[in-house]
Design goal:
By secondary structure, the protein is mainly α. 52% of the residues lie in helices and 0% in strands. The chain has helices at 5-11, 14-22, 37-43, 47-55, 70-77, 80-88, 104-109, 113-122, 137-143, 149-160, 175-182, 185-192. α5 packs antiparallel against α6, α8 (113-122) packs parallel to α10 (149-160) and α9 (137-143) packs parallel to α11 (175-182). The chain is elongated, with a radius of gyration of 18 Å. The mean pLDDT is 97.
Length: 194
Amino acid sequence: MARTIHDAAQAGHTDEVIRYIAQGSRLNEQDALGRTALMAAVHGNKIDTARMLVDAGADINLQDARLDNTLLYASAEGMYDMVELAITAGANTRLTNRFGGTALIPAADRGHVNIVELLLTRSDVDVNHINNLGWTALLEAVILGDGGVRHQEIVALLLRYGADPKIADRDGITPLAHARKLQYTEMERLLTQV
């Protein structure tokens, strides 16, 4: 048997997690890193264990010491099923990570097209949220993206779902100006069609 409910959850040992709960382990107890058993299951990418914990009443919105929770971490890491679970469970899309960004921003800059689409179509995430760097998801997709097909698709999705291409960074540079500077011609085309 795993040492703690967190170890069992991260390993995906759902039966052990259930035994720990039956023996009195608190569902939302946080370990030294501030992780709940649910967050441990998310880190282990154990969807069945995570689903059981959510069904048992685990708090989907609790954030760990790094300000991650199920939605924020899974969106950044490209874990589609976990993001879908979090949205279905009513995750708060206004909570932000340690950079002041919503789940949409790291999903956009890391090229997770399917997660960006899921967030835009199935949640109330703010497409124009500005993080601590002064960047929106659109700015991050251009600046931190590679200009390739995935990031082009993300720019198109963000624009389709209301991203404001006029929101500039702290230096007053718009997504279009960044795309031109980086010679991302397809992004430039998308941004001039708005």
